[in-house]
Amino acid sequence: MSDAVRAAVDETTAQIRERFIKLNLTNWEASTTGGQKALDAAAGARAEWMRFWANPDAYHRFKTWDENGAAGDDAQLARMVHMLHLGYAEGQRDPETIDEITALSKTLDDAYTNFRAEVDGARLTANAIDAILANETDSDRRRAAWEASKRIGPRVADSIRRLAELRNDAAHRMGYENFHRMSLALNELDPDWLYGMLDDLAAKIDEPYRRAKAAMDAQLSDRFGVPAADLMPWHYADPFFQRAPMIGEFDYDAPFTGQNLVELAVRTYDDLGMDVRDILDRSDLYEREGKDQHAFCMHVDREGDVRTLCNLQPVLRWMETLLHELGHGVYDKYIPQNLPWLLRTFPHILSTEAMAMLMGAQTLDPEWHVRYLGASPSQAATIGAASAARFRLEELIFARWVMVVVNFERLLYEDPSRDLDATWWDLVQKYQFLNKPEGREHLPDWATKYHVALVPAYYQNYLLGRMMSLQWDRWLAEHAGGIVGRREAGDFFRERVFALGATLHWNDALEAATGEKLNPDYFVMKFAN
Fold first, then answer.
1. For domain 192-222+248-527, is the CATH number 1.10.1370.30?
2. Contact, 462 vs 353, CB < 8 A?
3. Which of 196, 269, 398, 411 has the smallest count of CB within 10 Å of its CB?
C-alpha cells in the first residue's frame, strides 16, 4: 500500500510544484510592477492554484490515507500525506466560488498595490505617510496624513465582506463553524488554544501595557502640546499604532543616516555563516511608483530562488525590515535540498516569522551596534539602555495590536454582516486604549489593513513567532553566548532548525531544537515585568 501512496504523493508533488512556481513568479511581477497585465496573470495563476486544491477526489483519497495510516512506518511519507490532506481540505470550493474569489482578490490586489494617499494634492507613498507621522509636530498635518491613509477603506470594504462570506461558505461545507476557525485548525493551530492564550496574555500584560502607554503618552503630550487624555490615533508612529513612536532623547534613526543597509545586512549574516548575496541579487529593494509598498520574502521554487521585496530607506525601521526579510530568506535557503520537495519548507509560517523577528531585533542589540556600526563602549551603554526600553515598548504595543486584528477577524467570520466599523473601534479602544476620532462611526477603517483582506487568519503568527524567537534566544544565550557575530548561533539554526524542514509539526520541531514546546510565559517574563 505504501508504494501506491508514495507514487500518488510523487505525482501530486510534481503538479503542485509546477503551479507553485507559476503562482510565485506572477505574484512577483504583479508586486514589482503593479501593471494590469501582471495583475491579470497573477489572478489567473491564483485561480489555477485554487482549482487544483479544490479537487474533491484528491481530498478524500489523502484524507483516507492520512486517517488510516496508509504510509506505514515511513515518517516522511506520513507527514506528506498529512500535509496534502490538510491542503486539500482547506481548498474545497466549487468552481463558481473560485472564480468569484479570484476576481475579488484581483480587484483588491490592484487597489492596495496602486493606492497612494493624497495630502494637499500630493500623492504620498506609505513611507512618506510614515515620515509625517514620525516627524511632523503639527497635529492638523498629522491628522490629514492619517485620514488620507484610511481612504482606501471605503473602496475595498464591500469586496472584503463578500470575500469573508465566500470563505465562510467553504468552511461550512467542510463542517467548520466559520473560515477563521477552519483556517487555524487546518494550519495546525487549535483555535480554542489560540483564543484562550490571547485572552490570558491580554490579562497578564494589561497593567504593564497601561503603564508603558501612560509614560509614552506623557512624552507625546509634551511634543505635540496636547493633553495626554486628548491624544488621537494620528499622534502615534503609524496609521495603526502597531509600532512604538520615537520617544526619549536617543535618536534611533541617526545611526543609519548615510549607511548602506544592504552591506550591513550582508556582514550581519556573513558572521553567522549565512551568505545572503545571492538573495539580494535577485531582490527588489527600493521604492518606485506602481510597486507594492509592503515587504516580503519569497522562495519561488524551493530550489534556491529566494528573493525579497523592500522599499529601503536609511532608517531603523527599514534596517530592521531588511534583516527580518532576510531571516525568512536564510530559513528558505538553508533547508536541505535532499528533503522531498513537499517538506522543503518551514513546519509552519510562525516558524519562519520567528527567525525573521529574531534577526530584525538585532538592530536594538548594543553588541550589533558596536560590531557593525562602530559604536563606542559609552555609546553602546546608551544604546543598550534605550533599546531595551524600546524593545519592551514595541512588543507590548505590537501584542495588543495583534489582539485587535485576531479578535476582529474572529468576529468578522462569526458574522460578516455585523457592524464591522463599530466592532473595529471597540477592539481598538479595548486593547490599544486609543481615542476614537469623531465622525468615524461609519467609516470602514478596518478595511485599510491589507492583511484583513488578502492575508486572512495570519496575524497571530507574528506574535507566536516572537514567542518562538524568545525561546530560541534563551537557548542561544545559554549554549552559544548570544547571537550577534556568533557562528555557533548560525550552526544552531542550520543544524537544529532549518535542517528539519517541514518533517515535524511546528511545536515538535521547536521541542527538538530547544528541548521544550512553545511557552508563552517567556514573553511575559521578557516584556511584562
1. yes
2. yes
3. 196
Q: What residue ranges do the domains of the chain occupy?
A: 2-174, 192-222+248-527
Q: In the chain, what is the greatest distance between 2 CA atoms, to the nearest angstrom?
A: 74
Residues 92/15/307/406 CA torsion (nearest 10 deg): 10
In terms of Cα–Cα distance, which of 458, 405, 416 is closest to 168? 416
Alpha helices in 258-365 (DSSP H): 261-270, 277-281, 316-333, 349-360
Contact 300, 25 (CB under 8 A): yes
pLDDT for residue 248: 86
Q: How far is CA 348 from CA 204, 351, 464, 470, in A?
A: 26, 5, 11, 17
User: pLDDT (tens digit, 9 = 90+) per residue, 140-160?
Assistant: 999 999 999 999 999 999 999
Compute the distance between CA of residue 26 and CA of residue 42 in angstroms, rounded to an integer.
5
User: Whose CA is closest to 410, among 91, 191, 105, 92?
Assistant: 191
Selection from 362, 367, 331 nearest residue 349 by Cα = 331
State residue 441's pLDDT score. 84
pLDDT tens digits, 318-349: 999 999 999 999 999 999 999 999 999 999 99
The amino acid present at 27, given as its one-letter code, is N
